[in-house]
């Protein structure tokens, strides 16, 4: 009887793939076996040729919904195969291509059992199967077997072992499988109260939340802080204790369409994203009169909505029966808190109570954040449920590389052969704890994948913490350093995801700041070319800005600089009461000043000139408030004028921002209309730049990259206009357009140079 050896890679471990193969083989009458390799699945299949063809096709076409199989090889073999089909133990194969599954939200089958009081796992907060549950956060090493995970310390009871060993059971080799008799448990602790365990712990947690207390809850990838989302006093207390005056909090909703609809506007695409296995935070328009505390997102027109990502959170959300604030317990920009003792120490004075559990967290994973922009969900932050992101490269690397990304919204990426693996969100690297987290993630990726990079790719800005760390690491290990320009990495990230190997394209790289090859701070560029060969085709007219990178937290500086450069007196109240004259003199004398044409700074300036945000408490606050205000406006009538374009001395097309100032400063027009008009002007300017470059260079495709394009109002004005003008318009989905995409872009740019 003919026999084949079949090897599959991709996401095929931890997703019920071997029992799927077993059932498929029995259905088709195929003999042989299936086993896990090191990141692969290996199959020996014997049957008539026609049956083997159907079986092989079905391996891909009928795979479990959370699997992502790829066919690595099919080889005929002359081997005697015993009748019947079996599942063999894992084989530790050298040179394999591991693919780690992400952590997955509870599946419908597990949720049904969770609610069924007759089921032995009823109300058990760690229920899971091959289609759901923790994966990446608990893997220690390959192959993906229970002994190599955080569940190694929980021996299976007889009932769970029987399920684990039954190929027809959906918990066959579900490595995190557990029940109340043999698995992890919760523990509730609060000052002045006895601790509680099991179901009593959940009941005590819910009672604390109903009393308006703040509870730290240990989830899949770290701790969240929860409180009643309708309780203004509780939310205000959380803001005060966490020293987070303005940045919006996410809201955990029960799985109840009526409650969700009363708070946010969610169309079919939004509901699908919310309910997907990643269970991200999704930014959605807030409904007027939503029964949520005003302090959740002051001044913002969106709410970060999420559904439960774990059975524990599901039990809490359903038990509470109303929205809960659910924000990461760590300080902004720092790694997630994962250890109970460390969390208790760090959150003393912030959390009133704690809901711990005893399942180890091998690596911290923050919530993923998405937004529906131009009709599709776009990743703003990749974390739990999405990471690690693994992608094929459009080339083959001669040697492994590690890309360190940027300074804000940090991620790192490991490139080897024709693959790249992108880490979860690591935070902003201003804090030493975040930089230590980057170092741990770099070591972890190399260990998990068994890859030792020979080159480190870094942002060309010498002051970035990631660049400094990489240079020290390179000296210690004898590695090569390869600098990559910030905006070249942005453009290459977009090209690598959306147009690998395509003809030259034009990419608008609009963000807050990044060092350019000419020594100025870029951020409003139009780059023409392909990875490894970008050149600047257009920019905003540079202006002198005091404070450099630090100006992102002081939008008044950008606004004042534009006014001074245009010969206009800044409006009253824009500058701080103390030091206004000193700031003006320092700007005039070019003390601590840099030249920039960054679009992000223009949005900062507009927000400050409209009185929305003169000093920011978090990165991007001004532009986000400006967008929210623009969304409330009666839209401007007629086509918006773009900024004037002219050729600069170096031949680069230059947009003159000064033409936007009179409209921004016209106090006779409502602020919301001025905000909307500014968005329309920026969109019209982008379109005019694209059309000008097309006339000169014949480019047919345009991409949008950089954090400015997280702005839905801007993109949904610009993208339809570009398509109407005949451009193929590219906007990333799986790779964040902000600085989280830089590490991937650095590898694409490096490969393009080669």
UniProtKB/TrEMBL annotation:
Residues at the catalytic site: 18, 36
Catalytic activity: an acyl phosphate + H2O = a carboxylate + phosphate + H(+); C-terminal L-cysteinyl-[HypE protein] + carbamoyl phosphate + ATP + H2O = C-terminal S-carboxamide-L-cysteinyl-[HypE protein] + AMP + phosphate + diphosphate + H(+)
Pathway listed: Protein modification; [NiFe] hydrogenase maturation
Residue span, Acylphosphatase-like domain: 3-89
GO molecular function, one term: ligase activity
EC number, as in UniProt: 6.2.-.-
Residue ranges of domain YrdC-like in the record: 199-385
Family: Belongs to the carbamoyltransferase HypF family.
Function: Involved in the maturation of [NiFe] hydrogenases. Along with HypE, it catalyzes the synthesis of the CN ligands of the active site iron of [NiFe]-hydrogenases. HypF functions as a carbamoyl transferase using carbamoylphosphate as a substrate and transferring the carboxamido moiety in an ATP-dependent reaction to the thiolate of the C-terminal cysteine of HypE yielding a protein-S-carboxamide.
Name of the protein this chain belongs to: Carbamoyltransferase HypF
């Amino acid at each position: 009887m003919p026999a084949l050896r079949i090897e599959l890679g991709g996401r095929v471990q931890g997703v019920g793939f071997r029992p799927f193969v077993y059932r498929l083989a029995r259905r088709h009458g195929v003999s042989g076996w299936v086993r896990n390799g090191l990141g692969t699945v290996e199959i020996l299949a014997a049957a008539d040729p026609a049956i083997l063809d159907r079986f092989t096709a079905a391996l891909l076409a009928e795979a479990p919904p959370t699997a992502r199989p790829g066919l690595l090889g099919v080889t005929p073999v002359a081997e005697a195969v015993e009748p019947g089909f079996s599942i063999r133990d894992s084989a530790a194969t050298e040179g394999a291509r591991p693919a780690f599954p992400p952590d997955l939200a509870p599946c419908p089958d597990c949720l049904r059992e969770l609610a069924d009081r007759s089921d032995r796992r009823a109300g058990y907060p760690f229920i899971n199967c091959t289609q759901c549950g923790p994966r990446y956060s608990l893997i220690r090493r390959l192959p993906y077997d229970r002994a190599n995970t955080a569940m190694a310390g929980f021996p299976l009871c007889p009932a769970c072992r029987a399920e684990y060993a039954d190929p027809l059971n959906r918990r066959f080799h579900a490595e995190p499988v557990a029940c109340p008799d043999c698995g992890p448990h919760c523990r509730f602790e609060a000052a002045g109260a006895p601790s509680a365990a099991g179901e009593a712990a959940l009941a005590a947690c819910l009672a604390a939340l109903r009393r308006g207390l703040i509870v730290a809850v240990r989830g899949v990838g770290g701790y969240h802080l929860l409180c009643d989302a309708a309780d203004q006093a509780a939310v205000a207390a959380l803001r005060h204790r966490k020293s987070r005056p303005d940045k919006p909090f996410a809201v955990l909703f029960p799985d109840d369409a009526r409650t969700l609809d009363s708070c946010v506007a969610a169309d079919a695409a939004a509901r699908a994203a919310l309910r997907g296995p990643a269970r991200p935070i999704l930014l959605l328009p807030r409904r007027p009169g939503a029964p949520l505390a005003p302090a959740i997102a002051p001044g913002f027109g969106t709410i970060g909505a999420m559904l439960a990502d774990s059975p524990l959170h599901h039990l809490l959300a359903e038990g509470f029966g109303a929205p809960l604030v659910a924000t990461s317990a760590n300080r902004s920009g720092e790694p997630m808190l994962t250890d109970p003792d460390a969390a208790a120490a760090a959150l003393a004075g912030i959390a009133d109570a704690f809901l711990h559990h005893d399942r180890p967290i091998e690596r911290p994973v923050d919530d993923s954040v998405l937004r529906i922009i131009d009709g599709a969900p776009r990743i703003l932050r990749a974390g739990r449920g999405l990471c690690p992101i693994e992608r094929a490269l459009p080339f083959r690397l001669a040697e492994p590389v590690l890309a360190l990304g940027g300074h804000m919204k940090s991620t790192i990426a490991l490139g080897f052969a024709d693959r790249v693996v992108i880490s979860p969100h690591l935070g902003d690297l201003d804090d030493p704890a975040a930089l230590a987290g980057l170092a741990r993630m770099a070591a972890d990726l190399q260990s998990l994948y068994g890859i030792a990079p020979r080159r480190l790719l870094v942002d060309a800005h010498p002051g970035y913490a990631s660049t400094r760390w990489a240079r020290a690491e390179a000296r210690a290990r004898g590695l090569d350093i390869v600098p990559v320009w910030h905006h070249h990495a942005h453009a290459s990230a977009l090209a690598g995801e959306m147009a690998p190997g395509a003809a030259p394209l034009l990419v608008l790289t609009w963000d807050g700041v990044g060092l350019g090859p000419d020594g100025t701070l870029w951020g409003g560029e139009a780059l023409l070319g392909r990875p490894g060969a970008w050149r600047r085709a257009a920019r905003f007219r540079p202006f002198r800005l005091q404070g450099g990178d630090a100006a992102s937290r002081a939008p008044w500086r950008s606004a004042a600089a534009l006014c001074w450069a245009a010969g206009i007196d800044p409006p009253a109240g824009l500058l701080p009461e103390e030091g206004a004259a000193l700031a003006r003199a320092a700007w005039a004398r070019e003390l601590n000043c840099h030249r920039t044409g960054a679009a992000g700074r223009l949005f900062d300036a507009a927000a400050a000139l409209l009185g929305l945000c003169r000093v920011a408490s978090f990165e991007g606050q001004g532009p986000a408030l400006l967008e929210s205000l623009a969304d409330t406006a009666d839209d401007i009538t007629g086509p918006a004028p773009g900024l004037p374009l002219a050729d600069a001395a170096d031949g680069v097309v230059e947009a003159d921002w000064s033409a936007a100032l009179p409209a921004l400063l016209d106090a006779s027009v409502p602020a919301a209309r001025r905000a909307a008009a500014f968005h329309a002007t920026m969109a019209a300017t982008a379109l005019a730049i694209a059309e000008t470059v097309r006339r000169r260079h014949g480019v047919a495709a345009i991409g949008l990259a950089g954090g400015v394009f997280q702005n839905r109002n801007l993109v949904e004005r610009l993208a339809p206009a570009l398509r109407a003008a005949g451009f193929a318009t590219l906007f990333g989905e799986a790779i964040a357009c902000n600085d989280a995409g830089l590490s991937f872009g650095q590898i694409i740019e490096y490969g393009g140079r080669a």
